[in-house]
Amino acid sequence: MEYISGAAGALVLILVLSSILRTLVVPRGLYSALVFRLWWSLRRLLRLTAVGGGYRAMDRAQTWLAPLMLIGMLTCWLAGALLGFGLLLYTLSPLSWTTAFREAGSSLFTLGFAGGARLKLSVIDFVAAATGPVLIALQIAYLPTLYAAYNRRELEVTLLQSRAGEPAWGPEILARQWLVDTETALPALYRAWERLAADMGESHSTYPILLTFRSPRPHRSWLVGLVAVMDAAAVQLALAPRLAPPEARLVLRAGFTALRDIARALRIPFDADPAPDATIRLTFAEFDAAAAMLESAGFQAERPPKEAWPHFQGWRVNYEAVAYELCRRCDAVPALWTGPRDFPGGPIPPARPADRRPAEGRPELPPATG
């Protein structure tokens, strides 16, 4: 029995150390079973509090996912360390179960109320005593990194609101720029989101818990914003390839590379080299309706929608499946062209001011469709 307890304690400590290193230390998107099972469990638990309430109820519930994840990870690691050291002390000493775990807890949490004359076990006591403060210090140092990445992300998401509406939608970005003659600002927008996509691909695959951090407002989402910018670039390249800036291609490449990096960290399967004519879930009818909206806003297309569709399909096939799965897992706002969700309710079109007036005689934006 003592040998089994000792082996079990050593295994538990190895698993805890591996999870800590994978999550907090190693600068690479390594899979941690503890973190993702905790995410899965807490997400399902919070969803129970929003059953039948639609997206706003789901958003309110899932707002608590990030802080609960942080507390849950620390609790699981400390509990695992307590279990591991308790089993080792029980194996290597004549202590009873309760006394061994009391000794381990005293050392791990530096309480200092337990002790004994067993000098040969002082190494285990000292290691346990160092584990608790080091683990808490790593968690504390972890938070500034998370919030720095979160602030960089949310700054661009907030700036996108005036260009894409809330929730963001790719054709809406193009329509608003042509409606007010600011289409020359699109290259700068694509450059900003190219850099942000690279940043998010690195930070969100290294620290997947960032996926649980929601935007301050319910209808904003970094994931929906990225898909919207990529869709805008793909639509522009498909409908007006000669007028589309080169930055449109660059943001598409950076965007689907970032999404795939995150998918690899989450072990989401995807086709790394899809055929350009592979089927996508977005329909031609939705694309055609968006093209008609763009035409009414003043966008000058070089190709008719039917001719542009295969080009748009060839771009979107690179990121649609991964984007839809991430939007579903993150319970992102159900914007247009972002796929289904696990909660009731259809897609939400971008909100527009009720008193919008035509710019220089141009028509107002028609209702969003798709």
Attribute tags:
mainly alpha, 13 helices, 64% helix, 0% strand
Question: Strands, helices and their partners?
Answer:
Layout: H1 2-25, H2 33-48, H3 54-62, H4 65-92, H5 97-108, H6 122-164, H7 170-179, H8 186-206, H9 222-239, H10 246-266, H11 284-296, H12 305-316, H13 320-329
Helix pairs in contact: 1-4, 2-4, 4-5, 4-6, 5-6, 6-8, 7-9, 7-11, 8-10, 9-10, 9-12
Cα shape? elongated
Task: Supply the helix-strand structural class.
Answer: mainly alpha
Largest sheet report = none
Percent range for β-strand residues: under 5%
3D structure, described in words:
With 370 residues, the protein is mostly helical. It folds into 2 domains: 139 residues, no CATH class; 182 residues, no CATH class. Helix 1 packs antiparallel against helix 4. The longest helix has 43 residues. The chain is elongated, with a radius of gyration of 26 Å. The termini are far apart. About 2% of the residues have low confidence.
Provide a compact summary of the structure.
This protein has helices at 2-25, 33-48, 54-62, 65-92, 97-108, 122-164, 170-179, 186-206, 222-239, 246-266, 284-296, 305-316, 320-329. The protein has 370 residues and is mainly α.
